[in-house]
Amino acid sequence: MPPWSDVPVLLLKAAVFGALAGPLLALFFTGLFSPGSVPALLSPSILLVAAPMQGIVWALSFFVLVSMGNWYLRSKLDGYPQQIIGTIHIIYNAIASSLAFALSMEIIAHLPGPGKGSFPSQPIFWRIVVLDGIVGAILALVISAFIKLKLQVERTQVELREKERAQSQLAEETARAQSLALQSQINPHFFFNTLNTISALIEIDPRAAQQTIGRLADMFRYTLGCTHSGPVPLEEEIRFVRDYLAIEQARFQRRLRVELPDAELNDITVPGLVLQPLVENAVKYGIAQRLDGGTVAIRVDRTGRAVRISVRNTANGDSDFGEANLFRPGHALNNVRARLRLFTGNANPLEFHRDADWVECSFNLETAKA
Which residues contact 197 (CB under 8 A, 6 or more apart)? Predict the structure, then answer.
């Protein structure tokens, strides 16, 4: 609907149009309803005064009831299906047009001055008014019902969106709690194995055992921070693994060789303590089983936003890589797989591959949009 400040100008334009078209309208409708009165309309007083006045009445009646009514309806029906909008506009225009016609004829019948009585008042006009009023009331009830239905649907949609948002937040908080709970289970497992390593070093190299205890204290601070936080930069995770492998190298000496990425990896986030169990598994079931040892390598491969992180170790021919063996309940790898499921949404996030020389465990992530 146009601003109310524009309505006076629009009414003036309608009145001017009616005054100019009035003589033609007077001749048309007089010829239609009272053919014998046509000669009387040809007098100058009627053509110049009465007919323009009648045209103004016609124009203003149709402008107010039809044009402004359609503007108002359009604003109220916004958002409804086009079929419903079209049907309501057709019914309304039929009612408004007949009512404007009846109202114009009745006003003209009572206009003073020349041409008075050229359109005598007739009962049929009031019948039209009554009929239009009844149909209009029905239409108003229908529109009111549609508006109430629309408001109810909108309220329901808002409630559903709020419920979905609350459920999404609850799911995120639940997943975070599950991830942190699983992550906290790694701490005793990790420290138990590391203390075994230090215990072995005490007999082999007491000085190295002493240095390892200091390194273990630094690692302990990291694990405590991870247990109470969300994802961490991959750079920090690899730094932690580097310290862990340094402890293992003190135990295995030259039997353990290490390859780590040297690129900046702070833009990639992973669950805390997710790499260390994979590396520990590679050392325990790969390197420790070989007399000549082998290599543990961590690789990070990027393809656009996709990132593939893999832990590889020299193959040991006696290793059993069946799923039942790898993901036993309570085993560190089963824990890591559960946490990666929560983090990535992938039901099978860990992949194992082996050939004659290598065994590889890998998982895929996506970096955040730039």
Answer: 212, 247, 248, 250, 251
